[in-house]
């Protein structure tokens, strides 16, 4: 199912990259356009200048933490003219793949679409030695109100070639099916709701998949879908079950990487919510890399995982 190019690459073999791209924000405040579908956002009374100052401290400290663990971090400055408060969540508008493809996604809100800087992205990746062989741009699907917000919407099981996606206004099922066909993955579509009955806005706040381990907020998955999702995850993996409160604390919003040894990036908020047993389960499979991003979590409604765009591209030859 995986292409020959993708399967033969270093990332294809290891399944998890050692490089991420992060966008350093030029502005940061509560995004009114996304608040209707993101129940993780919290209203705050602080001025945007104070919020940006706090977010920059959290961002810069996270970069240092990731680099100290051996991860390669590409820091890209946001465009100040775009006035895009969620620009520090780049994984929603693009993804990269081991066969050289870069995927550009349709975004649900107008001010998030301003985050896309495709020619500049290709230039940044190329300057750092990565080979961009093909662009796949689905942004025109916004005209049909068919949205798919990158690896916020899609959880990739690279080893078993499965993609998990919770339906929401930001994750259109037709887009999921087309994405699965484009990349040769088996789609696992399901429904998930927060305790107030709202659809979970992004799948990546609910679950994550690593080598030999996965985390899942099972109680939030619709009962008719729950066992199917859990049993599929449990194939060759230990599943760490998360409660609704732990999902609210971003314990599902984690990312598995290789630095070069397996690691899992999560926030202090998430780590603090885990029991000693859950921490031990996680540590059996990956070294925790813990970042402190409370302002970004509270105001932006996304955690450290959302700040990381995995770079899975092959290296340029010569």
Structure characteristics:
alpha/beta; disordered N terminus; L-arginine/glycine Amidinotransferase, Chain A; 15 strands; three-stranded mixed β-sheet; 318 residues
In words, what does this structure look like?
With 318 residues, the protein is of the alpha/beta class. It has one domain (4-310): L-arginine/glycine Amidinotransferase, Chain A (5-stranded Propeller), CATH 3.75.10.10. Helices cover 31% and strands 20% of the residues. It has twelve helices and 15 strands. Strands 2-1-15 form a three-stranded mixed sheet, with helices on one face. Strands 3-4-5 form a three-stranded mixed sheet, with no helix packed on it. Helix 3 (48-68) crosses helix 12 (294-300). The longest helix is centred in the N-terminal third of the chain and has 21 residues, at 48-68. The protein starts with a helix and ends in an 8-residue tail after the last strand.
């Amino acid at each position: 199912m995986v292409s020959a190019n993708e399967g033969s690459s270093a990332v294809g073999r290891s399944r998890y990259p050692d490089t991420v791209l992060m966008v350093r924000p030029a502005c940061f405040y509560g995004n009114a356009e996304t608040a209707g579908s993101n129940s993780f956002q919290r209203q705050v009374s602080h001025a945007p200048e104070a919020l940006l100052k706090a977010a920059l401290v959290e961002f810069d400290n996270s970069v240092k933490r990731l680099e100290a663990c051996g991860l390669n971090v590409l820091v890209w400055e946001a465009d100040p003219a775009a006035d895009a408060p969620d620009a520090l969540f780049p994984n929603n508008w693009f993804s990269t793949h081991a066969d050289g493809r870069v995927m550009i996604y349709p975004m649900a809100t107008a001010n998030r679409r301003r985050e896309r800087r495709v020619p500049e992205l290709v230039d940044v990746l190329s300057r750092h030695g990565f080979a961009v062989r093909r662009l796949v741009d689905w942004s025109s699907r916004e005209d049909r109100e068919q949205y798919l917000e990158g690896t916020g919407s899609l959880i990739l099981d690279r080893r078993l070639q499965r993609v998990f996606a919770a339906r929401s206004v930001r994750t259109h099922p037709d887009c999921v099916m087309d994405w699965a066909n484009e990349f040769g993955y088996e789609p696992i579509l399901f429904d998930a709701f927060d305790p107030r009955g709202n659809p979970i806005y992004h799948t990546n706040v609910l679950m994550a998949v690593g080598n030999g381990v996965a985390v899942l907020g099972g109680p939030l998955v619709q009962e008719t879908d729950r066992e199917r999702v859990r049993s599929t995850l449990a194939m060759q993996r230990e599943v760490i079950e998360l409660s609704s409160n732990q999902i609210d604390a971003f314990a599902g919003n984690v990312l598995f990487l290789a630095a070069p040894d397996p690691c899992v990036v999560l926030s202090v908020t998430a780590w603090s919510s885990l029991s000693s047993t859950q921490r031990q389960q996680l540590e059996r499979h990956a070294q925790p890399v813990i970042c402190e991003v409370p302002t970004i979590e509270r105001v932006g409604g996304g955690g450290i995982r959302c700040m990381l765009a995995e770079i899975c591209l092959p290296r340029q030859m010569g």
